[in-house]
Amino acid sequence: MRITTKGQVTIPQDVRERAGLMPGTVVDFEIEAGVVRLTKATPGGGRRTRGQKLVESLRGGGDFKMSADEIVAQMRGAAADDG
Prior knowledge:
With 83 residues, the protein is of the alpha+beta class.
């Protein structure tokens, strides 16, 4: 197996299946005594994705006093038969 100029390598399908590495799986690399080990990242540990960072930045930012039903009613405006 050869590493591409972009530093990529294809993990054989049987290895991915046995290790449970699905598309989108986050992995970590560890180097110990000259051996490189690829492991599944532990949930909540390590690097965060852009989506996770976005959700964290938005979390707790809303302080709405209206319920979801009230917001939807306001967005829709007055009903046609109300006026």
